[in-house]
């Protein structure tokens, strides 16, 4: 409640502030993340093995061609932005990115395979780690400073919203894989401590660069992604993996509370949709899904099919599958997750009107929505 009031106040102040300023700077988002938020960066990393550049990725988005999103439709960040009145930021590596585009839409640095830790996802060869994404953000700030000057630039970055959504790969494509040295250098507790120390440094850095309104998204029950189930002997969720997600969420929540009180003028928030997704997985029909354990896009009986391919077959009704591929939720599941996060963060629209009721359950009967093409293509 307190947060909702505070948020409503800053939204009003921010909107007025910008208007008094001459309406020059919009409120935009800067997104740091992994494949759950990537909107095309990895398409421009030609050697990266983490790709969503082939059909049937993007089949329910715009013209239906692959656009770099690792799902059939929208990401969670797309949906939250749409529902809070914020433009969708283009991929940083998009060749059409310009200062004006950044001032109008923000930037998305998210990269499939990326993690909080530099070493995470190493076997994808190319991906942008969170540290690298923050370096690129510094470069973006320099571009904007030379375009509109230091003072206006400071104001612009102070009013912007920041999303940090990484962590899954630090487990799935690092700690839980014996090919990575972190898997034997750490135990569960010391690994989470290491992640929190690293994340704290990264969030402090973003604050020192002017970020004031920042959200960190937690992890879902990642032991229940189709890949984890197929790698277990029983086909059930891997409880060890789920426990790590819960421990990560708990530690992150504490870290964010702590930072929010320590950093000047900071509204740093943590939110996750673990319980809701877990409930969807246990009771899919309650939410209008009829499959919560296998990927909609699969390669016959061959599992795990590491990625969705042109030769793969698709499930009959994509809106009824929780998972799109072995790793990633479908558009319908993302909508459910986004609605839960909107509720947890107590969002209001940036234009001051209320966000659509997030509690209204979900994509239940709606088909996967088809929406305007992203500016990235
Ligand atoms: C991680 O990578 C960044 C460059 O992106 C580098 O500056 C930093 O020193 C590295 N950190 C560690 C702990 O290796
Ligand atoms: C916040 O973090 C500091 C160390 O950075 C620690 O000493 C303190 O106990 C933490 N406070 C809370 C409420 O977790
Ligand atoms: C904190 O906010 C106040 C009021 O907007 C401002 O005057 C001050 O410079 C800010 N401090 C920092 C470090 O951002």
TrEMBL record:
| Comp. bias regions, Pro residues | 355-377
The name on file for this protein is GDSL-motif lipase/hydrolase family protein
User: Which PANTHER family does UniProt cross-reference here?
Assistant: GDSL LIPASE/ACYLHYDROLASE FAMILY PROTEIN (AFU_ORTHOLOGUE AFUA_4G14700), ZINC FINGER PROTEIN
Q: Where is this region: Disordered?
A: 353-377
Gene3D superfamilies (UniProt xref): SGNH hydrolase
**Family that this chain belongs to:** Belongs to the 'GDSL' lipolytic enzyme family.
Single Gene Ontology MF annotation: hydrolase activity, acting on ester bonds
